[in-house]
Structures are given as C-alpha cells and as structure tokens.
Design a protein that fits this description.
Chain lengths: 150, 775
C-alpha cells in the first residue's frame, strides 16, 4: 500500500506493507542514518523525529506515520556536523552507530527544553543507549554545545 | 605540527554523526537475498531427520542449507593467531545442536517475510538429550557434549572432550602448600562471575557478493578481517585467493566480533546461488547465539605475614565456555597472567583448573578477557585479607605490588595459550596511580564509610589492575605508506578500527614521523585485498603493535624521501634537512618542497611511486596499569547500590591521543560498572536465556553513569610508539572488585557472586543485623 510522508522537508509517496515498521521503510528508501539496534524500542539507535518529537522507528508502524513529518539525520546535516565537533572535542565519539539518533534527539531536546539541567538532559536522552563512551563524555559535549548555542 | 600526545577528534566522527552510510548493512547490495537462521529450541539434541522440502518449494526461497550441505570440517570460530589455541570443535552446521539458539538450518529468500515463512516450514525431528546446564557438574558428566570423532586441538591445550573439557591449564611457582602453611594469616574464599553480554549497539552483520572477477567479497562487522578470510576458506574449502573481506565502520565490538558469526552463512549462500546475500542478527540472536564472557568460579587462598607481606597466592579456576570452546584456554590463562604479576613479591603461586563445556550460549572474547574475572576475585580477596590483618588495604598494596623495573616469574611462564615472555616492566607508574587516586577521591575523609542521608551509607573501595599490549611473537601488524603527488600520503593498514579510533591514532603516529598534518595522511584500513596483514583489534594490541608497525613504515618513507630529496638537489643525503614540508641543505642554498618533489617523482624526473612498508611483532607486552577508586552509596533499607563517583588513574604510557584514550577508559569503566551492578544473566530451567533482550538485560544508561574522573599518569614506554602502551581493556578491570570492596566498607557485606543485586546486599545487611543481635 502507499503512504505519504514528508521526509526531511520533502513530500514522498512510499510503498509499504501494512505490517511494516518505519525503520524498515526508511532503510528501504535509503535513509541509512537510521540504524537497527534492538527491535524492541530499548536502545534508541533507530530514533527519528515525528513532527519534531523523537520516536523509536523500529516499533512505529509506517502506515501510522502517514501524513506526518519525519526527520532523520539526513535532514539535520548542519546541526549534526556542529554537534559532532563538541563530541570530538570531548573524546565522546567512538563507534558512532548511535550518534545520528543521538544528534537528532539532542536537536529535538534543544527545541523543547530551554536551558536544561544535567539531570534534565539525562532524562531526555535516557533512551539513547551507548556502550562505547560511558556517557560522561557525551554529557560534557552536550553541555558545551548547549552553552555555546542556546 | 605536533601530532602525538594530542587530543584530536577522531577522523570519522563527524561523518558518522551525520549518518553517512558506512556500516556493514549500509553497504549491502540492494538486491541481497535475506538470510534467516533456524535455531535450536533445545539445549542439547540430535537431529534425527530434517525435511526442507516444503520450505524450498515456497516461491522466492533461493536456498535452504542444512548440515547435509556442508563437508564435515571442524573449525574454531575464534579469531586468533594460527594455529589457534582454541579447539576445533564446531561445524558450520551439524546434526547435533548444543544450546538453545544453536544453528539448525539456513534459509535465503528474496525478502524477510518469505525467509521467515520458509523457516517455519522446515520440519525437524529432534532426539532431545540430557543437557549440562550447571558448569560445576560439567566435568566428567555422563552427558558428553562433544562426542564427534573429527574434533581436535591444534596443539596441546588440555582438550579432553570426553570429559567435557575444552581446555585445562596448571602452573606453579615455589611450593604453595608449604608457603601457606607457614603464613601467619590465610584468607580463603570463592567468587563467581557471570556471562556478561557485549551489547555492542550494532548487531553482528555480514553480507556477501561475487564481484566482476568472480571472487567472493564479504563485508563484515568484524574485529579480525584476516582471520575471517582464513577461517572461511578452511570451513568452506574455498581458495583463500578468491576471498576478499572488507571491514567497513563497525558499531562496537568489545571482543564480541572477534569470533566468526554470520560470515559462514552469507558466504555459503552467495557461493551456492551466485547472488548477493545478507544477514543481520536480531538482538535476540546477538544475546543467545553469538558469544558472551566466560562465567568463572575462583577458589582463592592468600597467605601473608602479620606484618602484611603477601607470601602466597593459590587460585583454582573453573571456567564455562558454553557449547563451543572459542578462546577457552586463552581467556582462562589471562585470568592469571594479567592479574597475578600485580603481586610479584610472593614466594609461591599456584594457578590452574579447567574450562568446561556446558549447553549454554558459547563464551568468547570480551574486553578484559579473563583479567576482569581474575581481578574481581584477587582484589576482593586482598581486601578481605587486609581486614584479617587489620592493615589498610592501600598500604598493603603499596607494599606488595609490582613496581617500575621489576619483573614477575609469571611473565615467562604464562602467555596466551603458550609460554609467555620474560620481561621487566620498564614503565610502571602504579605507585603514582594509587597515590593520585587516593587524593582525587579524598580517601582519607571517606574511608571506610560516611553516613549519608536517611538510610544511606557511602563507602569507598579500590582495586589495582594491569593488562597487556598485544601478544608477543605471535600477533603481527603491518603498515604501508604511499606518497601522492602534491605531497600527501595514504596510510594503508590492516588494523581494525571498531570505534576505538585506531584509524585516527595510527594516522597521528604516521603524521608525526613524517612531520605532516593529519589531513595529509589519508587512512584506508581493514580490506584483505588492499591492506597489509594485521591480526586485528584484540588483546590491547593496536596502539602498541600496529602503532609500532606504522612508526617503522613511516621511518622507511622518511628515508626514501630524503634520498629522493638529495637526488633532486644533487647533494648527499647527509646534507639534507627535512621538516615535513621542505628539503634543504644546511646553508639553505638549495631547497625543494615536498609538494614539488612529489610532483617531480610523478611527472618529470626520476619518476617512481614511493611506497614504504613495514611490519611489527612484539617482543614483549608492556602492561598498562591503573588504580580504580569508587565511592558508592548503599541504601540500607533496600540494598540498592549507586556509584557516586569513579576515579581512575591510568598508566598507559604516553597517550597518542589523550581524548580518545579518555574515551576508552570511560567506556570500559561503564562496562565494568555494568557487569558489577546491572547486567544479570538468567537462564530458565530448560536452559534458555531469559535475559535475551534489552528490556531484561540491563546495561547502564546515562542515568546510572554520571560521574567519572579519569587521569593519566606521566609515563613513557621505551618500546612503544612515542612512549605509548595500549589502553583498550585496562579500564574494565577494576570496577567489580573496587565496587564490592566499597560495598563491604559501607555496610560490611561481601558480595562473592556477580552481579551485585539489591536483594543480595539487603540479605547481607539483614544477616549482619541478626549476627549482631545474637551477640
């Protein structure tokens, strides 16, 4: 069946199965920044923004997203690049597999929360797991990014 | 421009955060057949009959493979030097299944739905056998897990499959029984560690295709591309020369991708069908059907004099390798080899035991590789011994631990799978690490505990640790540097970047030797056709072993450049000064830039391509050291333990990139904290893994890991590249012992089985109360 999505600002008509999840749809259509990690909306690497809010695309039916706006890391290249410099400066990027989703979530958080505390940042990003960094470097990087850009 | 000991961002960090396709599945052929694996529902069973007719008949199914489709060639999936110290006890597919999740059959179809449908139509008649689900009764059990006649060891590793023994090892120095008898105080206890899961964010992923030259090209999320090529060739009896393995960006490994996984199946399917194929493990498959940390039991005896001199260490170990013996012996040996030398002044040491098969998920390599298990047991026991002696555990360690310039007989006796190498530790700032950590965590004000708010008590604990830097005389790395026109270079290496940043730090090293900017050193790595050999990313090798190979290759390139510079200026080589940009004579009268020289070599005179290459194999394995200090908060009403602060002071020589080294230590600490406090592994009675997804298996989130303080000691390892030792694993070793010591200091409860659970801590607190009341 066909659905309509606005992906990264562009109207797209996509062919999907009724039982297909958004993660598969997006990867099928070459939005490869969206990663597969756990299949149970526990790890956060498949995060995309639906009308600006983070969702786990591995557990979100594509047909349910029809008519909505989807943002992937491909749609926030400038911001992702900017955030990455802060990660680089704190030794916070390693394998990078969770990073496009984390950049998206930080981008959404920045629009949603004004001047969040450390605890609010952790609460907002708690669904974005990382096994490489130990999180503290990410926290330093995100703080610095927010301080410089808010 | 200084390039080493400089905190530069990793060279791929920006592109990866922007989501540029770079990982194995991002690079799969769009028309790949989708592979699904039928997995065993039984922990141990013989396949009486397997019928694939109905599955094969479905439209869209291209191939169904069972054990009947493969020659019976026993292999090991362990990515290690060859011949491997792991038993060859695995067939790609077999007519026996040995754990819940073991491979039964493989389906390749045009899409996932068809493959899943076909999997369900494969009819298997199993003869269910009595499994061994408890590693403490595995030895000489009436159930023999591996009774196949073809399986074998490559050289003596104590392999005794009829007794369910994958490997065994024993060593001793001095007479331990005599020594312990003469000690004033002896402490004895047992400790258990669990089958921690790696939980790298990218699941095990592989895909294959036949290229236009008719060769098999495998893309794999692997830590060991060259070992993958060798093992695939052996297992499928397919010529090595017709296989190319490419490792794209890898989404984390931690040892979990040091063993072969889906590469067998994509290769077999693509060779059989001629079509591209791909396999991405589900998270359940990653948990159940890849590899875990070896669970172990340690029976420890320590003896000391009244004055606090450690005299003897006696450690008996039982290790559980699960259904197959990947890394069975070597992980076992590292539990001694990279722990025991910490206390090098003892009169006697004994270390030994067995690695047994069970019908559980196979164990394999995992960061720390035995050292974290051994460290937990020994460093917990040391604290308990100190209590018996009424001696401060830090003073005790300072008195008994290894120091710079010293050696240990263990280095010579124990290697990884074979004998080790005698060495002195020429760089060891462990004494500084202990002192500095003591200061940073403010031990004197916090030890042993401070009462917190309400029911909470805060305690501090510590542990010391060591690891290694590669496997000497076995694991080799090599590098190639190519000069391009305009004066920039390619650094082509076999070394395997799995996120730890080796591409970056190896480029930094090459750029340092050639005095050029990092962006003029273009890295290409981990492609078995194009890059020179490297054993891969394991055993804390890359900085030290691959780094030394890069230094040697870069020095060769420098020599070549000076020769050509001299020739172009018509002077002797000795007269040339080269600063990375300009070649000139001492008087400055003659000069040529690198850019001009390289253009000359390409297009005008003395035309030639300059390529320098070199290799390195270690002659020693200088250990990184560290002291880990932790402050925990224990809620005495609930038993819940929280890490308030983790302080680590690390001697990994001079860091090539202090930022990336920091990331290595912080990340490893978090994994160690996870193993200690959160990552419980539960099996059901049938032998199935209950904790097989990220909802039941809890790794730390950013809510639990909030405060770490990592510093590096000022240290320089003569034999390392620019003074560096390795740093990949050392950070993971201390949390289990340090946290358990802190819990003991806080509430007097000694946890002897990991992970620490709130229930166990609370039970301990209640028992202590009872004992006090009885008194």
């Amino acid at each position: 069946m066909k659905i309509q999505l606005i992906i990264n600002g562009y109207k797209k008509e996509l062919e999907v199965r009724p039982d297909e999840y958004l993660l598969d749809t997006l990867r099928n259509y070459n939005y490869l920044s969206v990663k597969r990690g756990c299949d149970s909306s526990s790890c956060g690497v498949c995060t995309v923004l639906l009308d600006g809010s983070p969702i786990a695309s591995c557990s979100y039916l594509s047909i349910k997203a029809s008519g909505h706006e989807i943002t992937t890391a491909e749609g926030i290249q400038k911001e992702a690049a900017q955030i990455s410099t802060y990660f680089g400066n704190e030794g916070a990027d390693q394998c990078g597999f969770c990073n496009p989703a984390l950049a998206l979530t930080v981008y959404a958080m920045k629009r949603e929360l004004s001047n969040p505390t450390d605890e609010e940042i952790r609460d907002y990003l708690v669904g974005n797991l990382c096994r490489c960094s130990g999180y503290v470097g990410q926290q330093r990087a995100i703080r610095a990014y927010l301080e410089d850009t808010l | 421009m200084k390039n080493v000991n400089r905190g530069l961002p990793s060279i791929d960090g920006k592109g990866l955060m922007m989501g540029i396709p770079a990982y194995t599945d991002d690079l799969a052929d769009a028309n790949s057949l989708i592979i699904k694996v039928l997995r065993s529902p039984h922990p141990f069973a013989k396949i009486n009959k397997i019928d694939t007719n109905r599955a094969s008949e479905i439209n869209g199914v291209e191939c169904v493979l069972t054990y009947k489709d493969f020659k019976r060639i026993p292999i090991t999936r362990a990515g290690q030097g060859y011949p491997e110290p792991s038993p060859h006890d695995k067939f790609i597919l077999d007519n026996y299944v040995r754990y819940i999740g073991d491979e039964v059959a493989v389906v390749a179809a045009v899409d996932l739905q068809t493959a899943e449908k076909a999997i369900k139509l494969i009819e298997v008649d199993y003869k269910v056998l009595e499994p061994v689900l408890d590693f403490e009764v595995a030895y000489d059990n009436k159930t023999i897990i591996h009774d196949e006649p073809e399986i074998h060891e490559m050289f003596p590793i104590g392999f005794e499959p009829k007794k369910n023994v994958a490997a065994a090892y024993d060593m001793h120095v001095g007479n331990i029984d005599e020594t312990l008898k003469n000690c004033d105080v002896v402490y004895e206890a047992s400790f258990y560690t669990q089958a921690q899961a790696h939980v790298m964010m990218e699941p095990h992923t592989a895909n294959a295709r036949i290229d236009c030259y008719g060769r098999l090209v495998i893309y794999s999320s692997t830590q060991t591309p060259y070992h993958v090529r060798r093992i695939i060739s052996q297992a499928l009896q397919y010529p090595l020369s017709k296989i190319r393995v490419i490792k794209p960006r890898v989404g984390g490994g931690f040892g979990g991708k040091q063993c072969i996984h889906g590469e067998f199946f994509v290769s077999a399917v693509t060779l059989k069908t001629g079509k591209p194929s791909k396999l991405v493990y589900t998270r359940k498959e990653v948990f159940e059907s890849s590899f875990s940390r070896h669970p172990m039991r340690f029976d420890v005896k320590l003896g000391a004099t009244k004055k606090g001199i450690l005299k003897g260490i006696d450690v008996s170990v039982l290790s559980d390798t699960g259904a197959y013996g990947e890394h069975a012996l070597t992980v076992f040996m590292v539990a001694g080899a990279k722990v025991l030398p910490l206390y090098n002044k003892v009169d006697a040491v004994r270390f030994g035991g067995k690695v047994v098969y069970t019908n559980h998920t196979p164990a394999g390599a995992f960061r720390g590789y035995g050292a974290i298990q051994g460290n937990y047991a020994l460093e917990s026991a040391i604290d308990m011994l100190c209590e018996k002696l009424s001696i401060d555990p830090i003073i005790f360690r300072e008195k008994n631990m290894i120091k710079e310039g010293e050696s240990s007989p263990i280095f010579k006796i124990m290697g990884e799978g074979t004998e080790g190498i005698e060495m002195n530790v020429e760089s060891c700032k462990l004494d500084y690490c202990v002192k500095r950590g003591h200061e940073l965590i403010n031990w004197k004000d916090k030890y042993p505990f401070v009462n917190g708010e309400n029911s909470k008590v805060r305690g501090v604990g510590m542990a010391i640790a060591m690891q290694g830097s590669g496997i000497p005389y076995i694991d080799m790395a090599s590098a190639m540097i190519k000069l391009n026109d305009d004066g920039f270079y390619n650094l082509i290496i076999g070394a395997t970047d799995i996120g730890q940043g080796s591409d970056t730090i190896l480029a930094q090293i090459a750029a340092e030797v050639l005095e050029t900017d990092l962006d003029k050193m273009i890295v290409y790595s981990s492609d078995t056709d194009l890059a020179p050999f490297d054993c891969g990313a394991y055993a804390s090798s890359t900085t030290y072993v691959s780094g030394n190979a890069v230094v040697k290759a870069a020095k060769n390139m420098r020599k070549m450049l000076i020769k050509e510079g001299a020739r172009s200026l018509d002077v002797k080589e000795e007269e040339i000064i080269f600063d990375g940009v300009l070649f000139q004579t001492e008087d400055g009268k003659k000069s040529i830039t690198l850019s001009e020289l390289s253009n000359r070599l390409f297009y005008s005179e003395d035309q030639q391509q300059l390529v320098a290459t070199n290799s390195y194999v270690g002659t020693k394995s200088p250990p990184p050291f560290m002291a880990g200090y932790v402050e925990v908060e224990v809620d005495t009403e609930t038993g819940v333990v929280k890490v308030i602060d983790y302080t680590a002071v690390v001697d990994c020589g001079t860091t090539i990139n202090p930022l990336l080294a920091l990331g290595q230590v912080e990340g490893a600490l978090a994994q160690g904290i996870g193993m200690t406090l959160y990552e419980e592994v539960l099996y059901n009675q049938k032998g199935g893994l209950i904790t097989n997804n990220l909802m039941t298996y809890r790794i730390p989130t950013r809510k639990e890991i909030t405060n770490m303080n990592v510093e590096f000691a000022d240290s320089y390892e003569e034999t390392g590249p620019y003074g560096a030792k390795s740093v990949g694993e050392i950070g993971i070793d201390t949390p289990p012992a340090a946290i358990c010591n802190a819990i003991y200091n806080a509430v007097g409860v000694r946890i002897q089985s990991l992970p620490v659970t709130a229930e166990n801590v609370l039970m301990g607190i209640l028992k202590n109360k009872e004992k006090r009341n009885e008194k």
